[in-house]
Amino acid sequence: MEKQSCILIGAPVDSGKRRAGCLMGPDAYRTAGLRAALRDLGYQVHDLGNQTPRSFTPDADGAPLHALNETVGWTQALAAVAEETMTKGLPIFLGGDHALSMGSVTGVANFAATQGRPQFVLWLDAHSDFHTPQSTDSGNLHGTPVNYFTGGAGFDAFPAVANPVPYDQVCMLGLRSVDVAERQAMQHTGIHRHDMREIDENGIAAPLKRFLDQVAAANGMLHVSLDVDFLDPSVAPAVGTTVPGGATVREAHLVCEMLHDSGLMTSMDLVELNPFLDERGRTAHLMVDLCASALGRRVFDRVTRSFS
Questions:
Q1: pLDDT digits over 41-79, tens only?
Q2: Quick one: which of 90, 65, 59, 95 has its CA closest to 78?
């Protein structure tokens, strides 16, 4: 039986934060061999190239939110391409900072609604990204996507969220940097939250399995958003928001292998890769390997790579 097509969507979003470099992320994934890795697994791969934001008026200098109008333009563009490509295969959004998920998740959720199926989101990240435009101290909108796509208030400049993802259909794995405002805002939600202490004490497989069982029981569609900083910076340095104590390579591969075993993933983000901060492409290669694991590559399929 022919495998589902994978659709690569370059999302060189660099407006969600002030440190430049994520706009190079999509091409770094391509250079690291993502297309070939997926083809080797038997997928048809279609690369739509790098997207562009809808037209926008540049923000005034000194505005409290960094590049708000540009981020809105990206959200509009990516939501549209996400909803459209869901009819053609499994879209993989190549980022780009995490603000891109404001578009990718709302787009796939709109598609899920047309199918009468619930949308679930697995958030693999050191951060909860549950700020609002009003609560963020930094003004960086890459810290707001989860609040946005779950229907939070305060996003008047952005497109209205037609199909918000219910809180109890979101699972965060790998948390280790959550601001006070985010913690307070999430306290009374049903978001499944698992920090690195819990993972250290009990392992990463059990909470993921519980969430995947929930998705399967609901016949849900599952969007996976994988941030480079989910990983420990010792193995994945190419991110501007490094937080020590992240997932190991083995833990990350286990998550991705479990995702493939479940057969539930219907769309994916690869975000926050800043090649300017990488070491000879090691982070890009690791993220490609993890994507391949999520789509069926096993441990014994991997080649030994030398960085010497």
A1: 999 999 999 999 999 999 888 899 999 999 999 999 999
A2: 95
CB count in 10 Å sphere of residue 168: 12
Q: Is pLDDT of 228 > 80?
A: yes
- What per-residue confidence (pLDDT) applies to 1? 45
Out of 182, 229, 269, 289, the active site residue is: 229
Sequential DSSP letters for 68-112: HHHHHHHHHHHHHHHHHHTTTSEEEEEES-GGGHHHHHHHHHHHH
The residue whose two tokens read 């097509």 is 5
- Catalytic residue list contains 257: no
| Confidence (pLDDT) at 306 | 59
Amino acid at 99: A
Q: Is the per-residue pLDDT at 38 higher than 70?
A: yes
Active site annotation includes 260: no
Known active-site residue 229: yes
